[in-house]
From TrEMBL:
Pfam families: ABC_tran, BCA_ABC_TP_C. Belongs to the ABC transporter superfamily. PROSITE patterns: ABC_TRANSPORTER_2 (PS50893). One of its GO terms (cellular component) is plasma membrane. Keywords: Amino-acid transport, ATP-binding, Nucleotide-binding, Transport. GO terms for biological process: D-alanine transmembrane transport; L-alanine transport; L-isoleucine import across plasma membrane; L-valine import across plasma membrane. The keyword Transferase does not apply. GO terms for molecular function: ATP binding; ATP hydrolysis activity; L-isoleucine transmembrane transporter activity; L-phenylalanine transmembrane transporter activity; L-valine transmembrane transporter activity. Residues 6-263 form the ABC transporter domain. It comes from Phreatobacter oligotrophus. This is Branched-chain amino acid transport system ATP-binding protein. InterPro entries: AAA+_ATPase, ABC_AA/LPS_Transport, ABC_transporter-like_ATP-bd, BCA_ABC_TP_C, P-loop_NTPase.
Length: 277
């Protein structure tokens, strides 16, 4: 069996005449932190939206392989089954918490499915049967565990909307982890974080991979995060893959430098010399 947890095969996404993603293929290996990078408008979020079921790709296949050996073709599944059955969770570029609910409640909502099953779709919950109490207690314990890991345990009863930006990002990650994903997709997790918060985020992501065996796929603009924690980097430009390798390999790739500096390949050497690379 391949050690790829996710295979993106010939993915194309068109919006009318615009080709946002063009015949893209790459693999994310199990247990790795894989980063998808590229200049603004390169197609990164569109790739994430295809993987997580928010968009149906125009063409291509996205295969998720679970530890137990089950395979899922994500382009054929509705988004709620991608999260629940295929075990792919995501966070968003624009934070999407329930801001009027408490921090703890946000994590309990994420566990709605197992809680509903334990409640026998209401009856055991209404009658307060022990099977429901047990499930509720476990859900609270899991939420408390992730709040502790994300440094939010003291804020459990505060409205999520009262948290500063960095802690809201951490809460989104905690919420995704409460669904026990095998693949966690993070859309710009370091956006808006200060350097100290970025370091804490790096540690949290490493912890998630190390202690929970979760594979991570992230879109990120912050190169300090990408270069520091990624095992594998895929670079997009205008919807097309221009490089794929270790952080060191893509950093040295003239095509990547050209894309980021916005120059033709032929001018890379000249521009590199000018900017001192
Ligand atoms: N729903 C949509 N309808 C039409 N065009 C879209 C849609 N979503 C994305 N696009 C276009 O697809 C292209 C890729 O956008 P996308 O958001 O995937 O890029 P990105 O690499 O994530 O950019 P950024 O780094 O700025 O977030 C852009 O030209 C964008 O305008």
């Amino acid at each position: 069996m391949s050690d790829a947890i996710l295979s993106v095969e010939h993915l194309t996404m068109r919006f009318g005449g615009l080709v946002a993603v063009n015949d893209l293929s790459f693999e994310a290996r199990r247990g790795d932190i894989t980063a998808v990078i590229g200049p603004n408008g390169a197609g990164k979020t569109t790739v994430f939206n295809c993987i997580t079921g928010f968009y149906k790709p125009t063409q291509g296949r996205i295969v998720m392989r679970q530890k137990a050996g089950d395979e899922f073709f994500l382009e054929r599944l509705p988004d709620f089954r991608i999260a629940r059955t295929a075990k792919v969770a995501r966070t968003f570029q624009n934070i999407r918490l329930f801001s009027g609910m408490t921090v703890l409640e946000n994590l309990l909502v994420a566990q709605h499915n197992p809680l509903m099953a334990a409640s026998g779709w209401s009856i055991s919950g209404i009658l307060g049967l022990p099977s429901y109490w047990r499930a509720e207690k476990q859900a609270i314990q899991k939420a408390a565990y992730w709040l502790d890991k994300c440094g939010l345990i003291d804020r459990a009863d505060d409205p999520a909307g009262d948290l500063a930006y960095g802690p809201q990002r951490a809460l989104e990650i905690a919420r995704a982890m409460c669904t026990e994903p095998e693949l966690l997709c993070l859309d710009e997790p370091a956006a808006g974080l200060n350097p100290r918060e970025s370091l804490v985020l790096n540690e949290l992501l490493r912890f998630i991979r190390r202690e929970h065996g979760t594979s991570l796929l992230l879109i990120e603009h912050d190169m300090s995060v990408v270069m520091e924690i990624s095992d594998h980097v895929v670079v997009l430009d205008y919807g097309t893959k221009i490089s794929d390798g270790t952080p060191g390999q893509v950093r040295e790739d003239p095509k990547v430098i050209a894309a980021y500096l916005g120059v033709d390949d032929s001018e890379v050497e000249k521009v590199e010399a000018e900017v001192g690379l």
